[in-house]
């Protein structure tokens, strides 16, 4: 920032050269001007200067303060202060470098930053997972509370089973329905939200994890039959950990995305029944296969595009319902704009913004959407245009870019919301 | 005191026609504006300094709705009175 200070003499010289008068005359004028303003202010008047601003007197009340050295209280007298309030035109001119920036509302509900920057959106999954950490803790305590009550019964059953039959399968069956139920819920919760390509991989990873941990459990149980109680505790603990991991990630997504909630609630009961049926006389691997077969087709069925595009549709509908009367302006709004004539072209430099270009050509930054529309074919992301891109400035109907018409602004804002997703 | 009154006041002081004063005032203001746009500080002796300050971006929370909004940075013009003017104003408050 250039913090060069221009002294009185320098400004007098500048004015003299600009107004083509002698320096002495300019000096005289400046002195007179200041003297007049001062006099008016001292008389308690306010001084308004067109295109510049307003000078005002402000009375600052006396206040208490403390002497830093001695620590005793002193009273600072009240005093008058000259305040200067710049006019809107001066404000805008000075603020030109930042004029394209706008306040951004941060959505508090799911901490999702509706920002114009793409990078933040990329980071979002990470943030969601950190949030889940706290949720996992909550669920952990809940499940522990539950497991304490159900533990004794489950333990006895398991011990009996181990003594009588093939041990491993029965035990795993006892455990598995619970896991599978949970797992099912979780996976279904994940489905609508995760990106399709990543989804199968994620689920498979989770499944393999479960299989490996289950097999560990089996080995333990078969080899240490004598210490069944302590082992069972171990099993329960490891099962709990798996459940928590899955429930944590699942519920995080489950709570964050309401559509998932509805979906899972309906399918939860069905899956539970089928699992109970299947659990008789089927090996673990078979069961896991069947689970994965349930999971994979459903991922394809999940209505991902619907959930994402709902806001868009409704906003479009709102705009239609809000303005039922159709006039020439509405006609312009509704019909797709075709750009044939161009005012010129601009090359994108570092620091260039469509909003700045729009302000220069159309007088308002909000109409950048029309520039974007005309250059849509070679701008994939309006927030990140590669440097060196040549963009054409379309000739837009003057009725459409009327800054004084609130409907034009409204329409441009709607378009803005659509393009900045 | 508005723009017109200021011009007439200056013109009577300088014994110059209003049109001349108006033109001079206009040039002065446009010069000052240009300098301020260049983020330069203008010092008028015995009056005060005009300075451009940068207000940093900040996060504001609406107290009622709890909506958090990121306010972008901006440049504002600031006027600081000189000590000479301050002293004059002190006399004013004493007289009251």
Structural notes for this entry:
The complex is a heterodimer of chains A (421) and B (96). Chain A contains 14 helices and 9 strands. By secondary structure, chain A is mainly alpha-helical. In chain A, helix 4 (118-164) packs antiparallel against helix 5 (168-190) and helix 4 runs antiparallel to helix 7. With 96 residues, chain B is of the alpha+beta class. Chain B has one domain (3-95): HU Protein, Chain A (Irregular), CATH 4.10.520.10. Chain B is 47% helix and 29% strand. Chain B is elongated. The mean pLDDT of chain B is 86. Classes of the chains: A mainly alpha (421), B alpha+beta (96). At the A-B interface, strand 1, helix 1, helix 2, strand 2 and strand 3 of A face helix 1, helix 2, strand 1, strand 2 and strand 4 of B. Strand 7 (104-106) of chain A pairs antiparallel with strand 4 (68-71) of chain B.
Short description:
The complex is a heterodimer of chains A (421) and B (96). Chain A has 421 residues and is mainly α.
